[in-house]
């Protein structure tokens, strides 16, 4: 009788019910309708308010995050974080963003992968694949948070390259001691940039064009050598239409004057040219 009543099949009674039995049936029907109505209300809110699609998107993102490797983790989605993301995106470098507030970031089409959480914690860094990442950019607004973020990242992955933002001169040594390879002060760089536009306007404009222009135009890039290669700068310019500006050897020393090049694995070369020509040279030395 309970199954017949709850399923609303409408068969007759199995046996005649007493008045007490009919009262029990009425209460059972009311409770059943109330439970179903409540369940349908919750499901409707879950679907139509976007919770279902957001959870589905997050589930797929978590599965994809586990497959990403050799990527860059950007901690903080402020002004500096957004600028870093634009450069990474333009250079086709995979990245994952960690930020406490994900609403603004999720609406940005430039961010394919987002982890909502505190970048100073192991949980957020592990979700972002810190063990598989090649670099971390910490752009948190507080220097103390950047220090904690670097310490946590270095503990999880000692070999990761770390670049951090700093707001005060006194924080630079602390950030480097924590494990940052490079420390950038955006406010200071901005002042230097404006002063250079006064002292060397054409040179600064030229460097800005190289840094931010379209990839179809000339670009200034760094290439890592993985195969031994012998040539000279004139030959590279003639064969690949690429100008070699400098070479950094294994001892981390720059050579800007040598015409004859002996490129060995581990060397880095700074070249200027169009992106298709640079890719041809990169294919030859890697």
Report on the structure:
The protein is of the alpha/beta class. It has helices spanning 2-6, 19-48, 51-65, 79-90, 103-106, 122-127, 143-156, 170-178, 186-199, 201-212, 233-240, 275-285, and strands at 72-75, 95-99, 114-116, 135-138, 161-165, 182-184, 218-224, 229-232, 243-248, 254-255, 260-263, 268-274. The strands form 3 sheets. Strands 3-2-1-4-5-6 form a 6-stranded parallel beta sheet, with helices on both faces. It has a 4-stranded antiparallel beta sheet with strand order 7-12-9-10, covered by helices on one side. Strands 8-11 form a two-stranded antiparallel ribbon. Strand 2, helix 5 (103-106) and strand 3 form a beta-alpha-beta unit. The longest helix has 30 residues, at 19-48. 22% of the residues are buried.
What are its keywords?
6-stranded parallel sheet, 286 residues, 3 domains, Rossmann fold, 4-stranded antiparallel sheet, elongated, Alpha-Beta Plaits, 12 helices, alpha/beta
How many strands, what sense, and barrel or not for the largest sheet? 6 strands, parallel
Number of folding domains? 3
What is the CATH superfamily label of the largest domain? Answer: NAD(P)-binding Rossmann-like Domain
The whole-angstrom Rg is 30 Å
Strand content: 15-25%
Globular, elongated, flat, extended or rod-shaped: what is the shape? elongated
SS class: alpha/beta
* Helix and strand sequence: HHHEHEHEHEHEHEHHEEHEEEEH
Helix content: 40-55%
Q: What CATH first level of the largest domain would be assigned? A: Alpha Beta
Q: What fold name goes in the CATH topology slot of the largest domain? A: Rossmann fold
Mean pLDDT: 80
Major sheet: order of its strands? Answer: 3-2-1-4-5-6
**Helical region count?**
12
Examine the secondary-structure arrangement and name the CATH architecture of the largest domain: 3-Layer(aba) Sandwich
